[in-house]
Write a structure and sequence with these properties.
Layout (H helix, E strand, L loop, with lengths): L7 E10 L4 E3 H5 L6 H8 L3 E3 L9 H16 L8 E5 L10 H8 L6 E5 L5 H14 L5 E9 L9 H4 L4 E11 L5 E9 L7 E2 L22 E2 L1 H23 L8 E4 L4 H11 L10 H4 L6 H11 L8 E8 L3 E8 L1
Parallel strand pairs: 4-5, 4-6, 11-12
Antiparallel strand pairs: 1-7, 2-3, 6-7, 8-13, 9-10, 12-13
Helix pairs in contact: 3-4, 7-8
The chain binds acetyl coenzyme *A.
């Protein structure tokens, strides 16, 4: 039997895509009882991008464009991929997976393809899974794309959710590397399914939690207990980052970027205050894109990557929390 040679993982390229159409706080204030001031103070969001169905834009299109730009950045073609992992809660269909259709659009067959559902943790989970599969020796190159079109999954008149979300895709191409110390050196993927009623998208009234009064919003749209998710997120962000640092023996100074899910500026700032993270190490784009669920961390990664803020030899941490409820981290030697 051949002996398995340990290997590492290199980020060969990053990509992202956002729709052109902007939805500002003023646009929302014209549609519902809210204000630019309330949204900025409570969330840090000024505007978000949303699909324009009149232009034929869809979640599938957005995810495909995200992964296409990552392939371009890596100087690779779809046919160079062994596997495509697509993380989303807003795929058009459950069968086939959008991963299969993205792979087809990028001519990646016969690469394996599957969708992964971990809500806002989707990109971080998918990066962790891809790293592990490459280290197993079975795969050499994996395309990872996190993408959500939350504009298709929120009731546009429900101010408790419509103000928070935007549409985006973030992607990375991961390839086998000879250095076992390169790639994801520590990862966590956790969930507490008992808390699922805090955030869910029912397809039928039978999906509603027992005894829970429904808001009356149409099926297929997000129900969220914002205060519960907020409390959970504030605690988990700190816990996940501190656990990643203590397990790896790294200090804040050793990390070049903490790339956090963009859910609410107050949640991010709370982690920064409690752990003592300097502002220049915590990228924030929620003001321009809102919370794009599985798109968020990959979008931040790509914007930092393209800005030259992440270089070979540096260590970064990806962190997210989301529906499930789920939470996840990955410490990457780039
Ligand atoms: N505009 C104006 N007023 C509003 C709005 C709005 N859009 N929404 C709520 N309010 C009102 C409420 O009715 C309430 O009024 P009251 O005091 O008279 O009762 C008041 O503002 C405060 O409401 P809260 O819900 O307590 O507001 P909070 O400060 O908690 O902010 C928010 C709400 C922004 C949703 C916050 O709870 C939050 O960010 N939660 C986390 C959500 C999150 O991160 N989700 C991510 C996971 S998503 C995923 O995995 C797909």
């Amino acid at each position: 039997m051949a002996t398995q040679v340990p290997c590492g993982v290199r980020i060969a390229g990053c990509g992202s895509a956002v729709p052109e159409k902007r939805l500002t706080n003023a646009d929302l204030a014209a549609m519902m009882d809210t204000s630019d001031e309330w949204i900025r103070q409570r969330t840090g969001i000024r505007e978000r991008r949303v699909l324009d169905p009149d232009r034929g834009e869809s979640q599938l299109w957005l995810a495909t464009e995200g992964l296409r730009t990552a392939l371009d950045d890596a100087g690779m073609a779809g046919s160079d991929l062994d596997l495509v992992i697509h993380a989303s809660v807003t795929s058009e269909m459950t069968c086939p997976s959008n991963a299969c259709r993205i792979a087809a659009a990028l001519d990646a067959q016969p690469a394996g393809a599957f969708d992964l559902v971990a809500a806002c943790c989707g990109f971080v989970y998918a990066m962790n899974v891809a790293d592990s599969l490459i280290r197993s020796g079975r795969y050499r190159s994996v395309g990872v794309v996190g993408c959500d079109a939350m504009s298709t999954a929120v009731d546009p008149t429900d101010r408790s959710v419509a103000i928070l979300f935007g549409d985006a895709a973030g992607a990375a191409i991961l390839v086998r590397d000879d250095d076992p110390n390169r790639g994801c050196i520590h990862q966590t993927m956790n969930a507490d399914g008992r808390t699922w009623p805090s955030l869910f998208i029912p397809r039928a009234s039978s999906d509603l939690p027992a005894g829970r009064e429904d808001s009356g919003a149409r099926m297929g749209t997000l129900r969220m207990d914002g205060r519960e998710v907020y409390k959970f997120a504030v605690g988990k962000f700190r816990e996940v980052i501190e656990e990643a640092l203590s397990t790896t023996g790294l200090a804040v100074d050793d990390i070049s970027q903490f790339i956090c899910h963009q859910s609410n500026i107050r949640i991010i700032e709370s982690a920064m205050d409690k752990i003592g993270l300097p502002a220049e190490k915590v990228y924030v784009n929620i003001d321009r894109y809102g919370n794009s669920s599985a798109g968020s961390v990959g979008l931040c990664l790509d914007q930092l990557w393209k800005a030259g803020k992440i270089s070979a030899g540096e260590t970064i941490i990806l962190v997210a929390f989301g529906g499930g409820l789920t939470w996840s981290s990955g410490v990457w030697n780039v």
